[in-house]
Write a structure and sequence with these properties.
The protein is of the alpha+beta class and 222 residues long. Helix content is 15%, strand content 36%. A 6-stranded mixed barrel has the order 1-3-2-6-5-4. The mean pLDDT is 87. It has 2 domains: 7-97, Ribosomal Protein L25, Chain P (Beta Barrel); 104-191, RNA Polymerase Alpha Subunit, Chain A, domain 2, CATH 2.170.120. Strand 2 and strand 3 (42-47) form a beta hairpin.
Length: 222
C-alpha cells in the first residue's frame, strides 16, 4: 500500500441475485463485477474490510488495480462504487479490464495548488471557486497519471482557468474538449468577496411608516 500497489484477492461468484449478495454482505464480503475488453463479465466477491480500507486512498479511484483470482492477475480500474445510504459499508463495485495498448476512459481528480497564497486571494482578498474537481480523460494504461495539478498562484480576482489552460501529461486527452470549442469549461476561478449591504435607517422604515421628525413637522403645520 505504501507504494500504491492495490492488489485485491477475489473469488469467482457463482451464486447470484439479491439474496446471494445480501448473504455476502452479512459475511463481510462485497459483490463485484469485472467486465470490458475481450473477456466475458466475471462476478466476484471481495473481502469488504480490505477493499474499504483501500477506498480511503484517493489513488484507488484513478490507479490501475490488480484483481487476483483463479491463479491469475487481472489489471483493472474502478468504474463504479456503491455504498450503503447511511452505514459505512460498500455494497457493490464495478471494475473495467485494462488491456495493454488500448486507451482507458476514466476520471482523474484535480489537485489545486497555492490556493491560500494566490495573488487574488492573498493580495486582493478574493475567494477561490472550484467549478469542477475531476476531469474525464482518455489515456493509454502506461501513461495514466494519479491526478492532475492545477496551479492558481498567479490568478487575480476575476481570472479563470479553463480546460484548455490545464497542463496535461504526455498521452492524456480531455474528453470534454473533443466535443467542440464550446466545451472549454471553467475549472477554477478567483472571485471578489461578497459584500453585505449595510442596513441604513431608511432601510428599516416599513412602508407606510412616517419618520418621527416628519410627523412633528406635519403636526406644527396643522
Amino acid at each position: 500500500m505504501a507504494e500504491l500497489d492495490f492488489n485485491i484477492k477475489a473469488t469467482v461468484r457463482t451464486d447470484k441475485g439479491k439474496g446471494a449478495s445480501r448473504r455476502l454482505r452479512h459475511a463481510d464480503k462485497v459483490p463485484a463485477i469485472l467486465y470490458g475488453g475481450k473477456g466475458e463479465p466475471v462476478a466476484l466477491e471481495l473481502d469488504h474490510n480490505k477493499v474499504n480500507n483501500m477506498a480511503d486512498f484517493e489513488a484507488f479511484y484513478s490507479h490501475i488495480l490488480t484483481l487476483e483470482f483463479d491463479g491469475k492477475k487481472h489489471q483493472a480500474i474502478l468504474k463504479d462504487m456503491q455504498r450503503h445510504p447511511y452505514k459505512p459499508k460498500l455494497t457493490h463495485l464495478d471494475f473495467q479490464r485494462v488491456e495493454k495498448g488500448h486507451k482507458l476512459h476514466t476520471n482523474l481528480p484535480l489537485h489545486f495548488l497555492n490556493e491560500e497564497t494566490a495573488k487574488g486571494v492573498k493580495e486582493e482578498g478574493g475567494v477561490v471557486v472550484h467549478h469542477v474537481n475531476d476531469v474525464e480523460i482518455t489515456v493509454l494504461p502506461k501513461d495514466l497519471p494519479e491526478y492532475l495539478e492545477v496551479d492558481i498562484a498567479e490568478l487575480s480576482v476575476g481570472d479563470t482557468i479553463h480546460l484548455t489552460d490545464l497542463k496535461l501529461p504526455k498521452g492524456v486527452e480531455l474528453v470534454e474538449l473533443t466535443k467542440g470549442d464550446d466545451h472549454d469549461q471553467a475549472v477554477v476561478s478567483v472571485t471578489a468577496p461578497r459584500v453585505e449591504k449595510e442596513e441604513t435607517e431608511e432601510d428599516t422604515v416599513a412602508p407606510g411608516d412616517v419618520p418621527a421628525e416628519n410627523s412633528k413637522d406635519d403636526a406644527d403645520e396643522e
